[in-house]
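In the design runs reported in the main text, the only information available to the sequence generator was the tokenized backbone. The following block is the verbatim input for one such run; it is reproduced so that readers can re-run the procedure and compare outputs position by position.
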């Protein structure tokens, strides 16, 4: 820094400036503060500033001539924000693809001047994509980094006199990849900023055309020649690789050395060096302390089939990929990313945007390429990709639950940048998303039009992009509701401009403390959003030790500023999609209240300001920070995973049901395995029985009394849908739900066939009970659908035992039964039945003198039609009556995109003995029922639809009667309107519906175990979770780990974090049983999974 610049910096720090928005500093110990400008009294939201008044008249231009030759340029460009001249005002730098970049100096009062020429930062004759300000040489002024598509990335060193020097060649970063975004942080703890450059690809082979040499080698298509490393065939579709990203270490002077991806500095999740650098289509990257060790980790968002990467830093600049069990699934075309603690639990969550439309009609008319190979249920390490946003909620145990559907943020159109920002300053961070694209290249009708052109010259092929319609969609704002859910409020907040917004950055342009927003639009005017928030706020910026002068990577916590849990954020450099923010953070606060600010710096030191107040900008220095005392106490868990002692693995036989019924809501072969705990060999300890319809055996696992099991050689080679143990005539017996169901007597640990029951179809669930009170056991067996027959179920049947002979009574109207429980619901001294059903309400069959009468409506159950998977009975609130615990699909599936109810029409319209299906939802704006699935699915299901509709747009605008025409009269409807897993509390005459906590709604739930696990005399719950039976192109539902909920004795339940419960299960859990398996008088758990280990958890 020159003498002139140092003098200028001191004058600015000490003397209020004459021009608007000046800062009046007051020094106090390890910090100083300045009062913020008056925020006014406007409603929360934004005002787009008039460019004729601000002087910022800029458009990111791109000519058709250039576009034709390089379609990667349609990814747009970004913006950098920061105070380059240290005058206390935030300046703006805008990138342009076709023409010079422009640098705007903030004059105050919402006036800006173009200083591009004087700063020497125009970057002429290059396709500029991204930019960020950062002090790379540690001289306390901001340097400028600019990325380009196919030309050298640049570094402009701030000379301290409002001029910059291009040091690209000397810096060592001037490669010619197709670069997009930049992120900087001190990865190795040496107090300077290291650099990560995200590369996409200078040009696209597939988009821009070119001669691709394809050969068939042993039936497998491959590309050879110059593009062999760029193209991969998956399911006979071509997918394109990008270019390796670049990671640079800073020597502290702004000179960078590129790291080698194949060195031992970078390891895969299983600890192996990379064989080759990843060639991803990178779009953005962000450094963030993901695992809480005060070292910057790295998340990289990649486009297309090249998957996102998450690298965990060991604190010394060595990185290892995060376990795929920590992040279970990914967005397909990931673009922007941001982190925030959205639920204020002290752990950072993160959000990745993709391209799913918020408009249902558009969802039916768009479809991009995505590999379609199904992942087997037991493959937990494969991370499936899906065409939607992903929101990852941090569980605090090193894993994340993906909750975008639940949170209401799965769809935000063709999105580019995503930013967490507390727009209304209520203490909860909201989300802003830019979106739009010049051409809707996912439009199915246009894709079909182009495919009909056949083989055309490359020059003509390149121009086919102009056939696609524009995709001018409004930007999106999601308000954080404080409960893990968001509401779209773009119109209310004035954040709904329809220009194609790409890069977005935050900065306080008027020094009132709230962060304003600048969006760089392709072929549209730059959008400068004035933040209108008027609520009290506090702002923090940092001064770090060494050459990390802005404290990049430090975590700021504001504690008790609203009388609630802490707010927190990190200081960033770059990290936005092709953009970078001003290095400061804003937090909500109460006026005239005292609170504290805590800064954890990279490494192991902390600074605390104890008497902070609202209405101030605090500048906090690291120089007097204190070391952090680390608590190394081991965390105790309720259960210990002892699954190796059980030594059982479920193996499935795979069946693809969608070939038979393409419109199935889900596959039908994901129901088991099923469990039972009983002392089979009469040695005084509990054994385990496991069966499933798709694993042709009934396994008997014998317990040695200490919780170690051995498979009995008396196991059955017979598949089944359930096991019901009962006693009759002082003899232990078992009903196995094979086809047909069979009764076995258990003698000396051996199953001896007694009788087969004449059940008409596939059984699903059963109960043994004495309906007549005559001392012998009767059976109620529920039915399910056979392949091709869904949703028609086998008739449920009551088998009345008359001296060893069973008299059958059919219940053909009950539908699909998933579980049956018996208990005295009406407290009249006999046993009634509760039936969990899919696409229906929970059925209540009241026993009236040996006759079962449906009384669900009278007891208030009929209104709650769900996809009920299980129902158990227990007195949860201590009033002496049996309540119902019922598991359902939850609130984190694709059904969250539609209003309730969902209607399913079914019938054999073409007489081929296969049920045709069609799902619809009611569109209240159009006042008709609209299709949920695409034309492709309807065409496979209904031949007449294929003949009638040749365009997806026409189909998407049609209603159920028009699509199905005359055959709709021959189809029958069923529906569901309730998705939550819940408890129904029984007051003796009515049930009241009480959803379980939201943690129980984050994945479809199945088997229930209702026991007092913690010994407080109140019933607790364990619920099995996850469902991978989704239709093609849907993402599996895997956000559950198996959930333990503790009861309070009044019918209320609280979830236990996996860190406390010790239960972490990644597969499709289906059933659960509890018993004391090791003789310590504590309840243990066994949980089944599909195509994976059966889990044994022993209680401590």
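Verbatim output:
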């Amino acid at each position: 820094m020159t003498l002139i610049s140092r003098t200028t910096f001191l004058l600015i720090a000490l003397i209020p400036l004459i021009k608007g928005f000046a800062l009046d500093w007051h020094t106090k110990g390890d910090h100083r503060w300045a009062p913020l400008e008056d925020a006014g009294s406007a409603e929360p939201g934004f005002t787009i500033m008039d460019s004729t008044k601000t002087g910022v008249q800029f458009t990111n231009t791109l000519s058709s001539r250039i576009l034709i030759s390089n379609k990667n340029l349609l990814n747009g460009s970004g913006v950098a924000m920061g105070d380059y001249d240290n005058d206390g005002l935030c300046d703006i730098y805008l990138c342009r693809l076709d023409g010079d970049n422009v640098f705007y100096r903030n004059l105050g009062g919402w006036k800006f001047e173009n200083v591009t020429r004087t700063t020497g930062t125009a970057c002429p004759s290059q396709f500029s994509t991204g930019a960020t300000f950062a002090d790379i040489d540690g001289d306390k002024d901001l340097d400028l980094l600019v990325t380009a598509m196919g030309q050298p990335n640049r570094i402009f060193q701030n000379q301290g006199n409002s001029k910059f020097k291009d040091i690209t060649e000397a810096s060592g970063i001037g490669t010619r990849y197709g670069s997009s975004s930049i992120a900087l942080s001190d990865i190795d703890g040496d107090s300077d900023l290291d650099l990560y450059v995200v590369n996409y690809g200078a040009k696209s082979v597939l988009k821009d055309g070119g001669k691709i040499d394809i050969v068939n080698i042993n039936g497998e298509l491959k590309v050879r020649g110059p593009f062999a490393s760029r193209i991969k065939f998956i399911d006979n579709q071509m997918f394109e690789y990008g270019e390796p990203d670049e990671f640079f270490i800073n020597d502290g002077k702004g000179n960078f050395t590129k790291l080698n991806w194949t060195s031992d500095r970078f390891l895969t999740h299983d600890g192996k060096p990379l064989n080759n650098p990843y060639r991803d289509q990178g779009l953005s990257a962000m450094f963030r302390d993901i695992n809480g060790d005060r070292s910057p980790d790295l998340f990289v968002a990649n486009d297309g089939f090249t998957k996102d990467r998450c690298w965990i830093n060991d604190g010394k600049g060595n990185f290892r990929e995060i376990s795929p069990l920590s992040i279970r699934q990914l967005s397909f075309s990931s673009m922007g990313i941001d982190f925030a603690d959205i639920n204020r639990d002290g752990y950072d969550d993160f959000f990745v945007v993709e391209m799913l439309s918020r408009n249902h009609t558009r969802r039916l008319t768009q479809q991009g390429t995505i590999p379609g190979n199904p992942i087997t249920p037991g493959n937990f390490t494969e991370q499936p990709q899906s065409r939607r946003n992903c929101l990852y909620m941090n569980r605090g145990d090193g894993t994340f639950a993906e909750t975008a559907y639940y949170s209401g943020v799965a769809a935000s159109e063709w999105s580019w940048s995503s930013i967490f920002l507390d727009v209304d300053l209520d203490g909860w961070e909201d989300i802003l998303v830019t979106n739009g694209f010049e051409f809707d290249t996912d439009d199915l009708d246009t894709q079909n039009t182009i495919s009909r052109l056949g083989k055309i010259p490359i020059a003509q092929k390149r121009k086919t992009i102009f056939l696609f319609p524009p995709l001018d969609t409004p930007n999106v704002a999601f308000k954080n509701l404080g409960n893990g859910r968001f509401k779209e409020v773009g119109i209310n907040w004035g954040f709904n401009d329809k220009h194609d917004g790409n890069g977005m950055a935050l900065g306080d342009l008027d020094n009132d403390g709230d962060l304003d927003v600048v969006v760089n639009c392709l072929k549209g005017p730059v959008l400068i959003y004035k933040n209108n928030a008027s609520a009290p706020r506090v702002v923090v910026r940092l001064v770090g030790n060494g050459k990390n002068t802005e404290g990049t990577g430090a975590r700021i916590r504001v504690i008790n500023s609203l009388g609630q849990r802490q707010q927190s954020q990190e200081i960033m450099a770059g990290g936005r999609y092709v953009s970078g923010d001003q290095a400061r953070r804003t937090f909500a606060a109460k006026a005239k209240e005292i609170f504290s600010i805590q800064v954890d710096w990279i490494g192991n030191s902390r600074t605390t300001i104890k008497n902070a107040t609202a209405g101030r900008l605090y500048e906090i220095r690291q120089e007097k920070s204190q070391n952090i005392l680390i608590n190394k106490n081991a965390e105790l868990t309720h259960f210990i995973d002892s699954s190796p002692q059980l030594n059982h693995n479920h193996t499935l036989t795979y069946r693809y049901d969608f070939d038979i019924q393409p419109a199935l809501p889900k596959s039908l072969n994901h129901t088991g395995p099923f469990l039972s705990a009983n002392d089979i060999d009469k040695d005084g300890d509990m054994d385990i029985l496991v069966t499933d319809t798709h694993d042709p055996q009934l396994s008997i696992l014998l317990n040695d009394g200490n919780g170690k099991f051995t498979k009995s050689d008396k196991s059955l080679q017979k598949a089944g849908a359930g096991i019901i143990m009962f006693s009759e005539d002082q003899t232990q017996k078992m009903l196995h739900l094979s086809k047909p169901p069979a009764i076995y007597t258990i003698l000396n640990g051996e199953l001896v066939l007694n009788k087969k029951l004449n059940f008409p179809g596939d059984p699903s669930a059963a109960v043994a009970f004495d309906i007549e009170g005559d001392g012998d056991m009767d059976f109620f067996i529920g039915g399910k659908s056979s392949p091709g027959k869904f949703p028609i179920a086998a008739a449920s049947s009551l088998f009345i035992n008359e001296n060893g002979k069973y008299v059958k009574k059919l219940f053909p109207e009950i539908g699909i039964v998933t579980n049956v429980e018996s208990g005295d619901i009406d407290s009249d001294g006999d046993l009634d039945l509760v039936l969990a059903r899919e696409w229906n309400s929970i059925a209540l069959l009241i026993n009236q003198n040996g006759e079962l009468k449906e009384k669900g409506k009278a007891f208030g159950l009929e209104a709650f039609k769900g996809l009920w998977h299980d129902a158990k009975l227990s007195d949860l609130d201590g009033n002496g009556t049996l309540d119902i615990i019922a598991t359902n699909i939850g609130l984190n599936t694709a059904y969250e995109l539609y209003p309730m109810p969902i209607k399913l029409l079914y019938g054999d319209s073409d007489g081929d003995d296969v049920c045709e299906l069609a799902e619809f939802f009611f569109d209240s704006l159009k006042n008709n029922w609209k299709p949920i699935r695409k034309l492709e699915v309807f065409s496979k299901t209904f031949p007449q639809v294929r003949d009638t509709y040749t365009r997806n747009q026409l189909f998407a605008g049609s209603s159920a009667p028009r699509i199905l025409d005359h055959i709709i009269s021959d189809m029958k409807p069923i529906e569901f309107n309730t998705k939550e897993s819940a408890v129904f509390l029984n007051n003796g005459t009515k049930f009241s519906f009480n959803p379980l906590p939201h943690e129980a709604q984050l994945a479809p739930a199945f088997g229930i175990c209702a026991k007092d696990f913690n010994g407080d005399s109140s019933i607790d719950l364990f619920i099995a979770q996850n469902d991978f039976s989704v239709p093609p192109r849907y993402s599996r539902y895997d956000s559950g780990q198996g959930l333990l909920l503790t009861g309070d004795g009044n019918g209320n339940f609280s979830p236990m974090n996996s860190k406390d419960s010790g239960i972490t299960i990644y597969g499709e859990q289906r059933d659960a049983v509890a018993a004391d398996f090791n003789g310590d008088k504590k309840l243990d758990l066994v949980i089944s999974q599909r195509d994976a280990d059966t889990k044994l958890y022993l209680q401590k």
